[in-house]
Amino acid sequence: MLMRTDPFRELDRLTQQVFGTNGTSARPSVMPMDAWRDGEQFVVAFDLPGVDADSIDLDVERNVVTVTARRPTLDQQTEMIAAERPRGVFSRQLILGDNLDTERITAQYDAGVLTLRIPVAEQAKPRKISVSSGAGGAKQVLGKDQDRTVDADRERQAVNA
Fold first, then answer.
1. Which of 26, 52, 111, 141 has the fewest CB atoms within 10 Å, measured from its CB?
2. Biased-composition ranges for Basic and acidic residues (predicted)?
């Protein structure tokens, strides 16, 4: 339900950490993230310390969310003593499930953390249907606090059409 990550990107990340193919040994090149469900939305938090909010780019195409950020590079004359934080442009993609509403994603950047809130799509929310007996209509409950009465005859006609 939540999301999948690109296994090849994870393989690249592990390769870079083990073999140091990104310029230094054992430094991660992706932005770490946490993801969890909070009621009827999913929350994803990316660690982006030292990144200016204006350099963060968030794109959504179908069910793929791409986060791109830029941490400024240092002057060539600067002598680095330790270089464990990646610099330059880096990105991460998440493949979201079809049950999430990508049209209503919100993003907030605060204290070096980019937080995305992705609501569950209405059609994916659980619903209860109560069944009545006899010739009367059936009552259908859609989502929370939404009741709709459906005429049983009209419902049967729509199914048989």
1. 111
2. 142-161
* Domain boundaries of the chain, sorted by first residue: 3-123, 126-160
Distance CA(97)–CA(99), nearest Å, equals 5
Three-state SS string over the chain comes to CCEEECHHHHHHHHHHHHHCCCCCCCCCCCCCEEEEEECCEEEEEEECCCCCHHHCEEEEECCEEEEEEEECCCCCCCCCCCCCCCCEEEEEEEEECCCECHHHCEEEEECCEEEEEEEECHHHCCCEEECCCCCCCEEEECCCCCEEEECHHHHHHHHHC
d(Cα 99, Cα 103) in Å, to the nearest integer?
Answer: 12
What angle (nearest 5°) sits at the alpha carbon of residue 110, between those of residues 108 and 112?
115
What is the pLDDT at residue 22?
46
Architecture of domain 3-123: Sandwich (2.60)
Contact (CB, 8 A) for 152 and 137: yes
The per-residue pLDDT for 29 is: 52
Amino acid 12: pLDDT: 65
